Amino acid sequence: MKTALSAHATALLPLTVRDLVLRVDKATVLDGVNLDLGGRGCTMIMGANGAGKSLLLKLLHGLMPSTSGRISWGEHAPSEVTARQALVFQKPVLLRRSVAANIDFVLKARGKDMTRRDALLEHVGLSHKAGQPARLLSGGEAQRLALARALATDPEVLLLDEPTASLDPASVLAIESIVSEACSRGVRIIFVTHDIGQARRIADDVVFLHRGRVAEHTAAATFFPEPHSDAARNYLSGKIVV
Amino acid sequence: MGEALGLAVGLVLSGDADLLEIVLLSLRVSLTATAIACLVGLPVGALVAIGRFRGRNAVLILMNALMGLPPVVVGLLVYLHLSRSGPLGFLGLLYTPTAMIIAQAILITPIVAALSRQVLEDLHIEYAEQFRSLCLTRWQTVQALLWDARYSLLTVGLAGFGRAVAEVGAVIIVGGNIDHLTRVMTTAIALETSKGDLALALALGIILLVIALGVNAAVQAVRMTAARQAYV
Ligand SMILES: Nc1ncnc2c1ncn2[C@@H]1O[C@H](COP(=O)(O)OP(=O)(O)OP(=O)(O)O)[C@@H](O)[C@H]1O
Ligand SMILES: [Mg+2]
Q1: What does the pLDDT average to over B14-26?
Q2: ipTM of this model?
Q3: B133, B37 in Cβ contact below 8 A?
Q4: pTM recorded for the entire structure
Q5: Which residues of A touch B (CB under 8 A)?
Q6: Which of A9, A131, A231, B212 has a 20 to 30 Å separation from B194 between CA atoms?
Q7: In the sheet where A15-24 sits, what is the strand order?
């Protein structure tokens, strides 16, 4: 697999988020998010359940409009660059076809080299399941297929929403190494997780969401030993933050 | 009655030529009508399922209302169009199998459209966000939905066929139950009974029942196949 970075004229990064507000059914989920992400690396987004992490990813990916505020990927609005990104959903939706056909579908729809399918399945350790109905995969296998499908689109930005939430420890490490490898190829990673150990292993920087805002955005080396915000400190020490 | 039943079973078992002719015509008419209904109804169902356009609700109501079209009314309307003085009278189709195919296709196209619309819309709700993330075109979306709903759509087609093959009101008006030409199972049963040929009527009744059971068994088999692969 080769990176698609060179294929496009204008860069997606830096990402700039200004005063982003999102109301869903009158509830304010995001209440003035400001964020700047540079060109490379793996950014972890953390925060309590319901903090708005999944919705933030969908906004960044251009899947829904915000109530107000601005998101710019380089010079582009999110919905203009959805195709240059891939999102692995918290609950992946797999097609009612075989594992291999799920990859074939994306390769074909996006005009990619169809011969890459086997390598992609190999990459996520699903070669032996190629012929099986995708809907019969275990939770962890389904996550890995969703990741392979995302990689099949050669994204410049890979958005991951708790992709290891239901995985066994070995699979967690396998996914992390796939993500790290993509990151080292220059794919920009934005990764939502609740797994503190995981964030320590692969994060370059951490964005902590609290009460609809970015409570802090700190380099990983600082975040874990000494987070700046009370919210993050409480979260890391296992106290409930709402 | 007992005697007639004995004769009927005899007819079925001996593969009586007249009987066979009627059964084959029935199947040809209803299968063709079903194919046409799917050709028209599936794309309509798909477009309404994923489309967001003005008047969509009105279309939905219309589709559901058309599902309950009374066969005799469809027969009458087709008759009026195809009769010598009608707008399509010059085609000379009245009292031909083609007329019966037209009537049955009109009757079950709304069924195929309405049922497939429901199936495809449910699937689209599940897939929509993922598909937007993958930046699929509308046409790719429709193709994917049709393929992924294949088992459910097969049962929709079977439901349409079941309705068509058992229907009598429309085909009797536009077909006329002409021996060796437009006599199908249901019209034969309806008219031969009154003429006293109970054996033929009963024999056809038995076959119709078997076909109905067969359609239901096929639906069941499709459902089970889908469930086994978790493709429901
Ligand atoms: N479609 C929706 N309609 C109404 N409310 C919604 C919808 N989607 C999300 N919400 C609400 O928005 C809030 C943020 O949801 P979100 O899924 O972004 O949380 P999260 O940070 O990803 O949580 P988790 O860690 O549990 O995944 C939640 O309170 C949720 O109930
Ligand atoms: Mg979430």
Answers
A1: 90
A2: 0.88
A3: no
A4: 0.86
A5: 58, 61, 63, 82-83, 86-87, 89, 92-93, 95-97, 105-106, 109-110, 133, 135-136, 153
A6: B212
A7: A27-37, A15-24, A68-73
